[in-house]
Specification:
Elements: H1 3-30, H2 33-38, H3 41-90, H4 95-105, H5 109-122
Length: 131
């Protein structure tokens, strides 16, 4: 488990524990007004909202990080794909056959993306331009 997941899980656990504490001890706190003001449901609600915002921020950062990593990985794999396509085309294969050769032989993210695009246009779900 990475650091972001630990922080998110800890925040959720804290929020759940605080809500459980408030719901269990509401009866006891109601008789003591000074304690009731310290642990009011509105202040816990604000804390839960803040934790939810932090969770959304962390998940957004994680998504952005994954997207950037995916882009850099595909850019690094692009020259190999061009080499295989060039060799296939110079050997007399069509573009589709050369691309399929690359997708079958390579186990990279770029190969998986091109394979999915090929499958989409072969099944008629998308045109080549859309894929």
């Amino acid at each position: 488990m990475d650091r972001e997941q630990v922080v998110v899980l800890a925040g959720i656990a804290l929020c759940v524990a605080a809500a459980a504490y408030v719901s269990v001890s509401t009866r006891q706190i109601a008789s003591r007004s000074h304690r009731a003001s310290m642990l009011s449901p509105s202040s816990l609600g604000d804390a839960c909202k803040e934790l939810a915002q932090r969770f959304l921020t962390l998940s957004g950062l994680r998504t952005r990080s994954q997207t950037m990593r995916r882009k850099s990985d595909t850019l690094r794999q692009f020259p190999e794909m061009l080499d295989v396509l060039t060799l296939g085309l110079s050997a007399g294969l069509s573009f589709d056959a050369s691309l399929e050769l690359y997708c079958r032989r390579s186990e990279t993210e770029l190969a998986r993306l091109f394979s999915a695009a090929q499958q989409s246009w072969r099944m008629g779900m998308l045109s080549r331009d859309e894929a």
